[in-house]
Every structure is written in structure tokens, then in C-alpha cells.
Amino acid sequence: MFNNFRPNQLQGAKITLYHLKKCPDSVAIQLMLAHLQLPYKDEAIRKEDWPLVREEILTKRVPALRIERPNGELTWINESKGIVRCIGAAYDLLGKDEMEKYYVDRMIGKIMETVKPLGLFYLRKRTTTDLEEAKKKLFEDLTPLLKMIDKMLEEVPGACAASTNITIADFYLLPFVDFLLANKPDCLQPYPEMMAWRKHLLEVDQGVAKFVAGQTLTIV
After folding, report:
1. CA 141, CA 34: separation in Å to the nearest integer?
2. Residue 139 and residue 36 share a domain
3. Which GO terms describe its molecular function (predicted)?
């Protein structure tokens, strides 16, 4: 791990991101690197290849970031949230003051709460004969959280997820919102703040917009 990590430590570095294919934890990292316009090699690993590839990765866990600096010094960082916060701190993406940091943590925490209804959906999907009914139940279960996220965006003093400026909260919220849109295109109509937030983010961040345009979204 870097000590007193600084942006110049990535200048000229060869960056490789190792992650399992379709792993949601890696998307926030990819969005952050796209926002910072840092070139990197994306190594998406198939589950069946993991036992072999694992031996090549020092951390033995993914997502993992391999950073080789011009002087040959090699650094590995693993754990998705650790990677995002380590690099995010260096580039002032965690919030410029305590109130913004609160908004960042609050938004990420609320997004993490969606794991339970999503997990229940995938359990139902394994046994149900009516997938459409299972999807309907998923969006019903998500409705209280969507209402809270929309309200939180309204309370933030800015057009981004936690500030007037882009923070790591935007990189966590965007994959969730795009997953919803891929599976129910009209799902954001009751949530004007989310619709406005997404439109603003893609307008002001060309790196993120380009990354999103090149993604294949998960359809359940």
C-alpha cells in the first residue's frame, strides 16, 4: 500500500486492473479511472480461469490493482472499496469537507442497502417459473430505497451525488442506476432527481460517458 499516496505516483505508471467478469465491485474502480482519464489494462477474469490466474496475482484476491512505476517499483492494492478510497483520496474525490464526506458515505451506504433485495431476487430467479413476476417484486422491494436516494440527491447542495463536484459516490450510484434502466427503462420516471443527476454526470464527465457508452449492461 502507498504511504501518503499522491497523484504523481501514477504518472507514467503501468496500471492493470484484475477483476472477475461481471463483478459489480469493479465498476466503481473502472468509472474512477475513466473519470481521471488514467490509462490502464483491464484484465477481466472468467470464473473458470480464476484458480490459474490467482497464482499470478500477489494479493490472491480481486478486484486488484497492479501499479508498476517507471523506476520498476511494483505496488498491489486490493479490495474494491480500498482501491477507490486510496486513489480517491489522492485526487480529492472523497469530499472537500466533513459535510461532503458525510454525503458521500451516506449515499454509498444507501446503495449498499440494495444488496439485500437484489440477493433475494437472484434467489427467487433460481426457482421461479415467472421471471417477470420476480422482477416486479424486485422493483417493489427497491422502491423505498429509490425514494430515499432521490430525496438524498435533492438535499445535496450540488448537481452531483454528494457535492457540486464529482466524488466517489457518483461512481457507486451510476452502475446501480444503469442496472435499473437496463431492466426497466421507465423506472426513473418517479424519481426526477436521479434522472437529472445522471444526465448532468454524463454531460460534464466525458471519460465516464465514454466508458458507459461502451458497456454491456446486465439484463436479468
Report:
1. 32
2. no
3. glutathione transferase activity
In a domain, 1, yes or no: no
Distance CA 202, CA 102 (A): 24
Can you tell me the distance from the alpha carbon of 130 to that of 135, in angstroms, rounded to the nearest whole number? 9
Q: Band the pLDDT of 2: cuts 50, 70, 90.
A: very low
Enter the pTM of the model: 0.92
| 161-214 tens-digit pLDDT | 999 999 999 999 999 999 999 999 999 999 999 999 999 999 999 999 999 999
Q: 78: domain range?
A: 7-90
Burial pattern 165-193, b for ≥16 Cβ within 10 A else e, equals ebbbbbbbbbbbbbbbbeeeeebbeebeb
Residues 38, 64, single domain; the answer is yes
User: For residue 133, with 0-12 CB atoms within 10 Å meaning exposed, 13-18 middle and 19 or more buried, which class applies?
Assistant: exposed
